[in-house]
Amino acid sequence: MRFQENWFQILQTTFMQHALVGGSLVALTAGLMGYFVITRQNAFAAHALAHIGFPGATGAILVGAPVTLGLAVFCVGGGLLIGLFGKRVAEREIATGTILAFATGLGVLFASLATANASTTTNVLFGNLLAISRDQLWTFGGFTLLVVAALAVIARPLVFASVDPAVAEARGVPVRALGVAFVVLLALTITMAVQVVGTLLLFALVVTPAAAALRLTARPGAVAGLSVAFALASVWVGLVLSAMIDLPPSFFVVAVAVLIWGTVLVATRERRSARPAAPAVGGHDVVHAVPERAR
């Protein structure tokens, strides 16, 4: 580990520019999806989808196919199964765990058969932002457009279905279809994020920025904006630090995201503890409009 005096020139290299664009696209989609991941209690599903994509990546390495293709096929396929088999939270957890166990077994099998490509397998586990190619940027761009366009169409009913699914279903909102669509969009986001921070560090971009934003506001639009800003800051600052100090960018991206979350946590703790208690009406506490899990 040493300080690199030519860090500004390093930032101007082609691979750093690819990393900046690719990381920004991932931060945008992850920031937008993070609010729904938390309010829908899908953090475990997000974590599981990254591992479900692992056999897809190792299988692609084994047959010589693009890693992104393998990740996308397994992540989207796993997402569809989770969405179709698990309507309630408990059912979804069971379906997720079962699919995760099977996918992990396949991943171990494929990884053992693809020992000649151990470095690529390591990149899948821990990410390698500096290895993003021009072709991957086009793929990331297509995925980002698809996720943003889909959210623009389904965001309002998806928020309703995420915050209060029982009432939404009673009012005719297609909760099940929205759930499946959401998991597919999440799978596309994770397909990109895995290649930036890896399967083991995925929470840093998909969950942590949104968790920090939810400490500041409960409004979905504001949470999405803050979450994207926090994720972008994590990627940009992480890349600059990686250019200045010869260490993997994944570490710095995760460290900055956790630092932002920790700072927000400390800054809002005193404000929340000083908040006056809700007034009682008829001997009962007033229930806030936003459920606890959406705060």
UniProtKB/TrEMBL annotation:
Domain of life where this protein originates: Bacteria
Subcellular location(s) of the protein: Cell membrane; Membrane
Alphabetical keyword list: Membrane, Transmembrane, Transmembrane helix, Transport
Listed GO biological process terms: transmembrane transport
TM stretches of this protein: 20-38, 58-82, 94-117, 137-161, 173-190, 196-216, 223-245, 251-268
The UniProt record lists the keyword Membrane: yes
Membrane topology: Multi-pass membrane protein
SUPFAM superfamilies cross-referenced by the UniProt entry: ABC transporter involved in vitamin B12 uptake, BtuC
Keyword DNA repair: no
Stored InterPro entries: ABC_BtuC-like (IPR037294), ABC_TroCD (IPR001626)
A GO CC term attached to the entry: ATP-binding cassette (ABC) transporter complex
Family stated for the protein in its record: Belongs to the ABC-3 integral membrane protein family.
Protein name (database record): Zinc/manganese transport system permease protein
Organism: Klenkia brasiliensis
